[in-house]
């Protein structure tokens, strides 16, 4: 099999060189097949080495993105159906998956390492928004696209950072806890920071964005947590009852905010929210426990596949919608996102070292700072009506951070700290 992967790498290199030659000789219109074919072969070839296997999914995303750049009309509308309408439901499924693979213990992690959690959350919401703002005002980008860079910086971290922390032999419990709390705080901090830093670029409706973050992120995660409580053994009826009460309170809070903002269907919306985000997850968890015996690996496999398909679809749809803008500012935007991402790693790590956190915790916070929930940022850009402009930065940042994160995690994995005991590896966090 290794020979097959090697052959694919060679063909990939030749195909991409052919594409470059065609472009340099003025035959750019004929580069579609060698570019798409070269990237697809590269996705196969990177499986040759364990150190690069984790890049397979990212290269497949780049392959799909290249198709969207050459044939954007394929991903904008099918008949009378606009594909951008898939983005919010797909994001909710991804966030449900995040919640279903979490539990209340993730939030209890603050009691075990309060300093690490505090430093992680503070670094995340100070460093990335600040870098995003500086890049937005420095790079020659249209205001709507510059806003996307700030939006990425103001978003919470996601599950990808937990996976990288595991690969890097970092402090995985700390990573999971920081992800949980940064997400929990996002309905307040993301709109507030975006309004503060990007208000000069694009009008930001604070309360509307609060509502969208509840709908896109918080309520699906709540649904996932409830599914987790019923699907897998270990939680008492009292714990489940308390969670239902708390999550019902979250639904009431979300709809109370909507009522203040002028909504007139409070009771009906509460009813639907309870049905979809409490009733259905409880029923689904109970059925999964009875029919599948609560075997976590089954649900992990299903949700991981749905998440990968969902993220790829979202990025492709955004790329197709913003193809013309990407052709004009693509290289500048990629450079800005690269600096945003890598400076996040660097500053996150060294801030932790300066305040005395150990190597494992510093590595975890580096990923928590540098890797953002680009999916949520894409959904917010859609709700702002700026998918083809503001949504471009999240679409670029997502694959880029997975590539750099995989490289950094594998490099750190090969360099265990010499002066500190390396903890036993926990079970891998599913993406």
UniProtKB/TrEMBL annotation:
The lineage's top-level taxon is Bacteria
Where it mainly occurs, coarsely classed, is membrane
Q: Per UniProt, what is the membrane topology?
A: Multi-pass membrane protein
Pfam families this protein is in? SBF
Q: Can the keyword RNA-binding be found in this entry's annotation?
A: no
A GO CC term assigned to this protein in UniProt: membrane
Q: Which UniProt keywords apply?
A: Membrane, Transmembrane, Transmembrane helix
Is this entry keyworded Glycoprotein? no
The protein's location, in the record's own words, is: Membrane
TM spans (from-to): 29-46, 55-74, 86-104, 116-139, 145-168, 180-201, 213-233, 240-258, 270-289, 301-321, 327-352
The protein's name is Bile acid:sodium symporter
């Amino acid at each position: 099999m290794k020979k097959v992967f090697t052959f694919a790498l060679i063909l990939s290199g030749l195909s991409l060189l052919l594409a470059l030659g065609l472009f340099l000789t003025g035959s750019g219109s004929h580069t579609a097949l060698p570019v798409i074919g070269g990237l697809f072969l590269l996705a196969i070839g990177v499986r040759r080495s364990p150190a690069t296997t984790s890049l397979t999914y990212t290269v497949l995303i780049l392959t799909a993105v290249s198709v969207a750049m050459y044939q954007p009309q394929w991903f904008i509308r099918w008949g009378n159906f606009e594909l951008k309408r898939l983005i919010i439901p797909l994001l909710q499924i991804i966030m449900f998956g995040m919640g279903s693979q979490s539990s209340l213990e993730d939030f209890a992690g603050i009691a075990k390492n309060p300093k690490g959690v505090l430093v992680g959350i503070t670094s995340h919401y100070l460093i990335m928004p600040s870098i995003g703002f500086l890049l937005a005002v420095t790079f020659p980008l249209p205001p709507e696209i510059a806003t996307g860079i700030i939006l990425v910086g103001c978003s919470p971290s996601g599950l990808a950072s937990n996976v990288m922390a595991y690969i890097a032999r970092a402090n995985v419990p700390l990573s999971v806890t920081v992800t949980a709390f940064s997400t929990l705080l996002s309905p307040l901090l993301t709109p507030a920071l975006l309004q503060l830093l990007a208000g000069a670029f694009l009008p930001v409706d604070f309360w509307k964005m609060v509502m969208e973050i509840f709908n896109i992120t918080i309520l699906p995660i709540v649904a996932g947590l409830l599914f987790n409580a019923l699907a897998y053994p270990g939680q008492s009826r009292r714990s489940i009852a308390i969670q239902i009460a708390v999550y019902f309170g979250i639904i009431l809070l979300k709809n109370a905010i909507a009522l203040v903002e002028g909504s007139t269907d409070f009771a009906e919306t509460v009813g639907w929210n309870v049905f979809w985000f409490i009733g259905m997850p409880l029923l689904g968890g109970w059925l999964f426990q009875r029919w599948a015996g609560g075997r976590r690996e089954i649900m992990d496999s299903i949700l991981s596949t749905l998440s990968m398909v969902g993220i790829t679809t979202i990025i492709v749809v955004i790329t197709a919608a913003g193809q013309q803008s990407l052709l004009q500012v693509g290289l500048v935007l990629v450079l800005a996102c690269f600096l945003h991402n890598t400076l996040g790693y660097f500053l996150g790590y060294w801030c932790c070292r300066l305040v005395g956190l150990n190597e494992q915790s510093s590595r975890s916070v580096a990923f928590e700072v540098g890797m953002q929930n680009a999916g949520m940022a894409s959904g917010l850009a859609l709700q702002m009506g700026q998918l083809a402009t503001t949504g471009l930065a999240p679409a670029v940042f997502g694959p880029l951070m997975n590539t750099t994160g995989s490289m950094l995690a594998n490099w750190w994995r090969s360099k265990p700290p010499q002066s500190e005991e390396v903890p036993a590896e926990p079970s891998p966090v599913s993406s």
